[in-house]
């Protein structure tokens, strides 16, 4: 046995990955998405997860992601089996009378919302069962359909109560997820309850109502929605924008409380997790994201204009932009289409790169650096469980685009 | 002195600090894992069974076949990793093999997807035609009624689509019915035509599934000869005969599914999905326009009108500007001049001595179905 384990001191989680390394993985992946007609996304997901997992160190041992791209690809193909009949149904409904089509679309929308719950749970199952730490695998039991029903029922209640039921929903779903999580032959337990969320949630709720209401009233007072014959006053948007920003800050405050209290309620026998996430650091993540996105998009715009100037120089002759000359330049249809597609893909790539590098990595780092685990040395006796070979890929999670990390 | 490392046996969560040794006996080498403190042997892994799993650059994680799946030997630091890699060239070899395997899977999947796309682009017009052929005519008719109801409902604010001359016994309507019957003759189409000249400011004409054709008064007003009118009408009858409306519905659904597959977003709500679907669907649509043009030309082999007139009329209402030219790939219609050239070739060898589609009295009656255009425009300007 290892000497350093005997101390019984709480252990700090360490994360060693850098933005630069993740950025390089993503850029290479985006480049490969084009020649593979999008199929490389399964490999990109695997590389991204290997990055996150392998740089996360708990008590001297790193996590290992053991999943691979073929499993994800196969899972996606299986999910198609669900979607092809749905597509047929969609098509059939669109040919019926207007009312029937409307009701049908609504029904399918609700069904997809229900499926998202299933997809989230299956995706989590896949990730946990492919996570190795100290040679022992994590796992998740429980029923994905059960989780989907639960989540769906709660979301219906959310609609009917105007969001007031949220703390009960959040605590219930966290509990379901963690009470069905395993490390080897040991089951996690979850001590959190709605009482821990009620105070921050309801104060935030009231604050958002007040701030939003004041902003709206001030905006209307400044004639942002002009009545009969009145002119629209752009100054009216200022209080609305300010109140929207303040509401965003309140939401971040609440999110930091929920993450802190719920993660800190997770136990694995004698080992206890404590996580501290501050609202300020969450705010910092979103600020960096906004800055990063602005800079990238500006660079893309400048680059795009330079390319246009080179390709369609005469349109810019004389210092002004000549639409006729510009369109005349785009004679070849393929050049136009290629330019539209390339521009769209670049903007999309810029957005997802910034989101991954600033928001997702930032959030992972924040939770990892804020996490302390006590009683880790009691886990030495955990035994491996049998292989979970039933899962092939994340299935619906890939088809519905709900996968986090 | 062995190389220091950590060992997980894959059976329990205990961590062992170990020293690694390498033993060579003839061809076969073995990695020996010894407890760093007591020196007792914890595992012997034959070199041939070893492979490296993914880890950051300065970390080496070794696993072995025929061992518990979670069992790992972990070594950190450049110097120690370098020593192991030098001793065990099999690790390089296996890593290369694994990379090649992944590349093979990715290439195979990409080729498969690319061939699905190519098969789709060329096969769907045929396949959609076949599927449309299996759909019972009655079903297509009820579908057409739904489409027509939806369309009229969407035009309610601008006055809907009122039929100009509701009397089926009038000279103009009888002429239209007769033209329709003759144009449909020999096509084997199960549908009965219902040609409606309707009042609208939009210069347009279209066929809904099931045999109903709308001809808008604004387009009729712009027609300068019976050739042009008969040409466009025969073109729309071509859409009915080939069941293009239904085909188009089927191919749109198929395209949506395919694009969703490529983008991994089966809800198909993103901009990319819409753009891709438009590109593919408008290609199918251009194919069906040309097919309907050919049908109009075949009708002109039996009735005396010049089908190229249809390109003139359509060209007149929708001048192809530079913008349309630049975005031709997105357009649902072929460019006017291309169409006209093709139609003129088809119209070159028409037999002589055919009946004209409409007598001059009938053509006058048709032109006046919606009242005198000059009177009407004056009334609207009041």
How would you characterize this protein structure?
Chain A is an alpha+beta fold. Chain A contains 12 helices and 13 strands. Chain A has helices spanning 19-33, 41-54, 69-94, 98-129, 144-160, 166-179, 194-221, 237-263, 279-311, 323-329, 333-369, 396-400, and strands spanning 11-12, 14-15, 56-58, 61-62, 64-65, 131-133, 136-140, 181-183, 186-187, 189-190, 266-268, 271-275, 371-374. Chain A has a 5-stranded antiparallel β-sheet with strand order 1-13-12-11-10. A 5-stranded antiparallel β-sheet of chain A has the order 5-6-7-8-9. In chain A, a hairpin with a 2-residue loop joins strand 3 and strand 4 (61-62). The longest helix of chain A is centred in the C-terminal third of the chain and has 37 residues, at 333-369. Mean pLDDT of chain A is 84; it is low at 1-6. Chain B has 13 helices and 10 strands. Chain B has helices spanning 78-87, 89-134, 137-154, 171-184, 217-222, 226-241, 244-263, 271-299, 308-317, 322-326, 336-347, 360-367, 373-381; strands at residues 3-8, 16-25, 28-35, 41-46, 50-53, 59-64, 72-76, 194-198, 205-208, 212-216. In chain B, the strands form 2 sheets. Chain B has a 7-stranded antiparallel β-sheet. A 3-stranded mixed β-sheet of chain B has the order 8-10-9. The longest helix of chain B is centred in the first third of the chain and has 46 residues, at 89-134. Chain B is rod-shaped, with a radius of gyration of 36 Å. Chain B starts with a strand and ends with a helix. The mean pLDDT of chain B is 82. The chains are: A alpha+beta (405), B alpha+beta (382).
């Amino acid at each position: 046995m290892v000497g350093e384990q005997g101390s019984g001191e709480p252990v700090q989680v360490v994360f060693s990955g850098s933005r630069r390394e993740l950025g390089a993985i993503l850029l290479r992946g985006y480049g490969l998405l084009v020649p593979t007609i999008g199929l490389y996304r399964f490999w990109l997901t695997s590389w991204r997860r290997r990055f996150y997992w392998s740089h996360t160190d708990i008590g001297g041992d790193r996590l290992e992601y053991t999943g691979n791209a073929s499993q994800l690809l196969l899972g996606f193909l299986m999910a198609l089996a669900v979607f092809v009949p749905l597509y047929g149904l969609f098509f059939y409904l669109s040919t019926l009378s207007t009312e029937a089509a409307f009701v049908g679309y609504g029904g399918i929308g609700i069904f997809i919302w229900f499926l998202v719950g299933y997809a989230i749970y299956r995706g989590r199952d896949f990730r946990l069962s492919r996570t190795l730490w100290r040679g022992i695998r994590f796992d998740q039991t429980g029923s994905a359909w059960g989780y989907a029903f639960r989540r769906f029922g709660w979301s219906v209640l959310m609609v009917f109560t105007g969001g007031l039921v949220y703390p009960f929903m959040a605590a219930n779903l966290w509990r379901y997820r963690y009470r069905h999580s395993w490390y080897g032959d040991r089951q996690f337990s979850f001590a959190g309850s709605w009482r821990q969320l009620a105070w921050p949630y309801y104060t935030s709720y009231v604050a958002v109502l007040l701030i939003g209401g004041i902003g709206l009233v001030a905006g209307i007072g400044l004639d942002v929605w002009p009545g009969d014959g009145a002119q629209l006053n752009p100054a009216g948007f200022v209080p609305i924008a300010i109140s929207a920003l303040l509401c965003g800050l309140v939401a971040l405050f609440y999110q930091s409380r929920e993450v802190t209290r719920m993660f800190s309620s997770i136990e694995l026998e004698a080992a206890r997790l404590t996580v501290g996430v501050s609202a300020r650091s969450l705010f910092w993540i979103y600020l960096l994201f906004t800055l990063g996105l602005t800079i990238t998009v500006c660079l893309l715009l400048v680059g795009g204009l330079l390319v246009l100037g080179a390709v369609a120089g005469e349109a810019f002759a004389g210092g002004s932009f000549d639409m006729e000359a510009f369109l005349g330049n785009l004679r070849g249809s393929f050049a136009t289409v290629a330019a539209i597609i390339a521009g769209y893909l670049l903007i999309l790539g810029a957005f997802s790169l910034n989101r991954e590098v600033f928001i997702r990595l930032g959030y992972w780092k924040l939770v990892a650096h804020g996490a302390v685990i006590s009683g880790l040395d009691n886990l030495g006796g955990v035994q491996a469980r049998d292989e979970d070979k039933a899962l092939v890929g994340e299935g619906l999670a890939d088809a519905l685009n709900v996968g986090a990390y | 002195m062995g190389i220091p490392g950590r060992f997980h046996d894959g059976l329990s969560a205990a961590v062992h600090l170990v020293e690694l040794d390498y033993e060579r006996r003839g061809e076969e080498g073995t990695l020996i894992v010894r407890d760093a403190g007591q020196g007792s042997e914890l595992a012997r892994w034959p070199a041939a069974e070893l492979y490296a799993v993914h880890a950051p650059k300065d970390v080496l994680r070794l696993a072995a076949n025929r061992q518990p799946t979670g069992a790992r030997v972990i070594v950190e630091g450049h110097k120690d990793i370098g020593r192991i890699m030098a001793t065990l060239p099999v690790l390089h070899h296996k890593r290369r093999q694994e990379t090649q395997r992944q590349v093979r899977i990715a290439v195979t999947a990409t080729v498969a997807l690319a061939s699905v796309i190519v098969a789709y682009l060329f096969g769907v017009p045929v396949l959609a035609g076949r599927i449309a052929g299996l759909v019972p005519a009655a079903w297509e008719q009820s579908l057409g009624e739904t489409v027509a109801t939806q369309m009229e409902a969407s035009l309610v604010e601008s006055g809907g689509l009122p039929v100009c001359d509701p009397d089926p016994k009038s000279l103009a309507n009888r002429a239209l019915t007769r033209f329709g019957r003759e144009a449909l003759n020999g096509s084997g189409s199960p549908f009965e035509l219902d040609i409606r000249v309707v009042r609208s400011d939009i210069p347009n004409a279209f066929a809904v599934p099931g045999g109903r054709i709308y001809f808008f008064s604004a387009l009729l007003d712009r027609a300068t000869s019976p050739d042009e009118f008969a040409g466009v009408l025969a073109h729309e009858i071509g859409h009915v005969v080939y069941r293009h409306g239904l085909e188009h519905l089927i191919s749109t659904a198929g395209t949506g599914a395919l694009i969703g597959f490529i983008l991994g977003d089966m809800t198909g709500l993103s901009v990319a999905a819409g753009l891709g679907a438009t590109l593919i669907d408008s290609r199918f649509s251009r194919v069906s326009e040309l097919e309907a043009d050919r049908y109009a030309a075949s009708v002109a082999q039996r009735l005396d009108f010049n089908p190229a007139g249809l390109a003139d009329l359509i060209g007149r209402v929708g001048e192809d500007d530079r913008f349309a030219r630049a975005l031709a790939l997105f357009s649902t219609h072929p460019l006017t001049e291309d169409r006209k050239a093709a139609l003129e070739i088809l119209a070159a060898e028409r037999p002589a001595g055919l009946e004209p589609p409409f007598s001059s009295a009938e053509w006058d009656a048709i032109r006046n179905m919606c009242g005198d255009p000059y009177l009407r425009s004056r009334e609207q300007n009041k």
